[in-house]
Amino acid sequence: MCPMNLCLISLLLILPLMRGELNFNNDLENHQKFKSVPTTIKTYENDTVLLPCQLDTPFHYVRWHRDDVPLVDSRHPEIPPPERVVLWANGSLQVSNLKSEDTGDYYCEIMSNSNHAVQVHAIEVQYEPSVVTEPSGVLELPIGATFEVVCMAMGVPQPAISWRLNGNTLDQYSNAGNRQSHIFEIKSRSMAGLIECLAANGVGQPAVAGVQLRVLFAPEPTLPHPVVYTKVGDRAQLECIVEAAPAATLQWFHYGVPVQMGAHINSQETELAGSHALDSYVSLVKHVLTIKKVRDADMGQYECRASNSIGFRSATVELTGRPMPCVFKINPGTQSSTSHVLVWQTESMLPIMEFKLRFRQIPSANITRPVKTNWTELTIPAQVTIGPIYITSYTLHGLQPASLFEVSVLARNSFGWSDNSKTVRFATGGEVELPNYSTESELQYDATEEIFENEITQRSHIFTASMTHNRATNCVYNTLVYLTIFMQICLAMRYT
Ligand SMILES: *[C@@H]1O[C@H](CO)[C@@H](O)[C@H](O)[C@H]1NC(C)=O
Ligand SMILES: *[C@@H]1O[C@H](CO)[C@@H](O)[C@H](O)[C@H]1NC(C)=O
Ligand SMILES: *[C@@H]1O[C@H](CO)[C@@H](O)[C@H](O)[C@H]1NC(C)=O
Ligand SMILES: *[C@@H]1O[C@H](CO)[C@@H](O)[C@H](O)[C@H]1NC(C)=O
Ligand SMILES: *[C@@H]1O[C@H](CO)[C@@H](O)[C@H](O)[C@H]1NC(C)=O
């Protein structure tokens, strides 16, 4: 055991009180006889200290004890004093080249003609703190694990211990009475990093020791493109980026069947550089499944399944010939009070056959009671244009003036229907106060396919719709690119 241990020091402090040899009964009387005063000397290793023991009167003999260890006695000069200890003729005790074991209480017992007295001094040999942790080095544990870090600090006086996680001081102690150990629970990956224990006792610099925590976790696959648009005969690539610790292995499935690698389909992986130095143990790999020449049978749902010792996770990616979702390019120019020009764009590897447009009136601010009108669905045949980019313009007529509408559109090619476009709003000319819709997501509050299908009750004959493809397309196409950003700004200002 270390000699600086607090318990041991306490024990040494108690021991002298149990000895009968020295007389402490007349403390006050003792004090009055001494010229020297009791002192506690706090000093450092290798120093020399002088403890005085001086009476008002000349003395017969003097002897010293450290705690219960006899050191010197002037009546027995033939007994050599311990190493590094000297008794001077004036009764003072010198201890040189101090070591940790010299820490203690020093009792001077002195006798003159008339007096017998005892005085106590103390020496504390101070040591800079030092600290070790258990465990130390690198600790690898999965999310959910609980572990204890024990911190053993040494130094005189006893150092105070504090904890840090990634430089942030921790003040939650699982066992408040004992600051020497800290229990950690790994709640998330963000706990990864450096756990440190600091010991400070006012002597020299605080000491630091630590353990590097690596949080292990089941693979986390992400898909840069959850839907990959292609057509038969094209080359297609499916990407799956996997983050994992330890590194994961990956397998591709097509409708649940493992993908057979060969001349037709192969997969590559590329190690991506970790973003954070502390997370350098995290493996980040991009897996690419390449289909050289897409066949009809290659279309459909793919699964990238990544697994490591902690677990496995999957992500599904769709390879499809469907058109991409349409994107509205709303013309901010003034519209008539009863009609509105809609422009949208989509991309398709196969020719677009038709569009399905749905719209409905939504409450504007001057309608006190919210009215929910049903969706109106229009089928709009596609014009014959050359892809893969298709820009379509369509004018809605017979709309209620000064009103607010929302609209979405789908496109179909020979492969199937696209996903829904985002639902966007437009207003017909006239004074219309817009309600407080703050975000795009609010717009899509009930624009689900189910509601859509259920509420198609009004048919297109109620509204006279006219096609304005050719002229509008040419005009809009040229200005669209330049206007897009401007439109988005206008829309944002108009609708927020
Ligand atoms: C005391 O002396 C020893 C031996 O020379 C040395 O190793 C140690 O570092 C010294 N301690 C201090 C606090 O200077
Ligand atoms: C006692 O003697 C030592 C050695 O001569 C001296 O250094 C010290 O100052 C003396 N102490 C007193 C209190 O006279
Ligand atoms: C909303 O207010 C405008 C102008 O104040 C009015 O022309 C329009 O009819 C109102 N709309 C409804 C639905 O009350
Ligand atoms: C909307 O559709 C529902 C269910 O089909 C029907 O009961 C309701 O009358 C329709 N509302 C309007 C305003 O047409
Ligand atoms: C819109 O919000 C503002 C402040 O957030 C509020 O004063 C105003 O009454 C709201 N208007 C409507 C129509 O809810």
From TrEMBL:
The keyword Flavoprotein does not apply. Gene3D superfamilies: Immunoglobulins. Residues 32-124, 129-209, 219-320 form the Ig-like domain. It comes from the Eukaryota. One of its GO terms (cellular component) is axon. The keyword Repeat applies. Keywords: Immunoglobulin domain, Repeat, Signal. Residues 1-20 form the signal peptide. One of its GO terms (biological process) is synapse organization. It holds the Pfam family I-set. Residues 322-431 form the Fibronectin type-III domain. InterPro entries: Cell_Adh-Cytoskel_Orgn, FN3_dom, FN3_sf, Ig-like_dom, Ig-like_dom_sf, Ig-like_fold, Ig_I-set, Ig_sub. GO terms for molecular function: axon guidance receptor activity. Transmembrane segments: none annotated. This is Neurotrimin. The lineage of its organism: Eukaryota, Metazoa, Ecdysozoa, Arthropoda, Hexapoda.
